[in-house]
Design a protein that fits this description.
Alpha/beta knot, homodimer, 9 helices
C-alpha cells in the first residue's frame, strides 16, 4: 500500500495476534500504524461512495457485475479522480469475501490469474490491484545520458585496427582480402557504437596489435 | 508465477536452507519443484535473447536504459510474442541486483512505486511485473445473467403500492398529494428495477400494507 501511495487501511474483524504483532514490529510503517479497526464491513466502508470487492472466482453464479482488473481499475480511477472516496475490499486469504461481505459491494474485480491457479497470496493481490490503479502507460522512459554517436572517421579507425589485428592473426586470406575488408567495415557500422565505446575498442585493439608485434 | 502462467524459475546462488524448505513444503507447487539452480547469472540466462533487470532506483546514475514497467512490459511482450525467450532478473530483497548482475541485462524496468517508498517486497514485485505482462485491457466484463427490465405496468404496480403505504403512514399531505404521486412515480422509474426485483418489492409493500390494515 505504501509503495503505491495508499495509506488508509481499514481492518474488519482482524486477527488480534497478527495485528498486534504487525503494529509493534520494528519496521511497522505508517500504513499499519494508522490502520483503523472495525467489526463490520458496513462501518468500514460507511464514508465510501464506491465499494469494489475482489474475488478469485471466474464465472461462478454471479450476483454482481464482475470486471477484470484492467477494466475495473479504470472505473475506480475515474471515481477517485472526481474526488470521491472508494474502498477496495479484500477477503481473508483462505476464504475470500463472504456472500454477506459482497452485498456491500457495487461490483467486483478479478485479477486475471489463470483458471487452474486463481487464488492469490493476499499481499500480492493488493500490490497488483494498487499497481493497476497508479500505472500510467504514457510514462516516459529514462535513457542514460545521451550517447554521442561515433563519427565515420572514428568507426574507420576501429575498422582499420580490427583489420590489422585480423591480418596479424592470420584471419585474412589474401584472395578474399577485399571482401573481408568490406564485411568488417559493415560489421563495425552495424555495432552502432557511441564515441566513448570507440575509444575503448581502439585501446583493446591497440593492445592486441602491440602483443602481436612482441611475438 | 503460477498465478500468471510463468513456470520457468531459475535461481542464482539461492540460499540453500530457504530453497530446501520451499521445495519440501506441503504446498510446494510445480514452479518451485521444477526450479533450476545456477551459480552465475550468465549461466542462468544463457538461452535467453532478452534479459531485463529490475530495480527500485529512480534516476540514479544510469548505465542502462530504464523503462517504467508499463512501457517496458510492452517490449517484453513483443519479444515473447515473437517466440523468443526472455528473462526477467530480480535481485535479492535486501540489496537488489548488483552492478555485475546488471551487465547481463539489455535494459532495466522499474515498478512505478512512489519515491519515498521505492523498494518492494520481492514476491509482490514479481506478481506486479508478471501481471503487467499478461494484462489485457480489451478483456470483457462479465455481467450477471441478463436482467429483464421491468415493464411500465410492473413499475406502476410498485408505485401504486408504495403510494398506498405512504398514505397509510401519513406521509402524503392532501394539498400536495398530486405532486407526491409524481415524485414517487419518477423515483420508482429511476430505480431501474429488473422484473424480478419488482416482485420482491411488491411483496414487501403488500406486507407493510397488511400490517397497516391490522392496526
Amino acid at each position: 500500500m505504501s509503495n503505491f501511495g495508499c495509506f488508509d487501511l481499514r481492518l474488519v474483524n482482524a486477527y488480534r495476534v497478527a495485528v498486534d504483532e504487525a503494529r509493534s514490529a520494528v519496521k511497522a510503517g505508517a500504513v499499519i500504524e494508522k490502520a483503523r479497526e472495525f467489526t463490520t464491513v458496513a462501518e468500514a466502508v460507511a464514508d465510501c461512495s464506491l465499494v469494489v470487492g475482489t474475488t478469485a472466482i471466474g464465472n461462478r453464479e454471479l450476483q454482481h457485475t464482475l470486471k477484470r482488473l484492467e477494466t475495473g481499475g479504470t472505473g475506480i480511477r475515474k471515481h477517485l479522480a472526481a474526488g470521491a472516496p472508494a474502498a477496495i475490499l479484500f477477503g481473508s486469504e483462505k476464504f475470500g469475501l463472504s456472500n454477506d461481505d459482497m452485498t456491500h459491494c457495487d461490483w467486483l474485480i478479478r485479477i486475471p490469474t489463470r483458471e487452474e491457479h486463481g487464488s492469490m497470496n493476499l499481499g500480492q493481490a493488493v500490490a497488483v490491484t494498487l499497481y493497476e490503479l497508479i500505472r500510467n502507460p504514457r510514462a516516459v522512459t529514462a535513457t542514460p545520458r545521451a550517447k554521442k554517436a561515433a563519427t565515420s572517421e572514428q568507426l574507420e579507425r576501429v575498422t582499420t585496427l580490427l583489420l590489422d589485428a585480423l591480418r596479424h592473426s592470420g584471419y585474412v586470406n589474401e584472395k578474399t582480402a577485399a571482401s573481408t575488408e568490406h564485411k568488417t567495415r559493415r560489421l563495425v557500422k552495424r555495432m552502432d557504437l557511441p564515441g566513448a565505446d570507440v575509444e575503448a575498442l581502439q585501446g583493446m585493439l591497440r593492445q592486441i596489435l602491440w602483443k602481436f608485434g612482441q611475438s
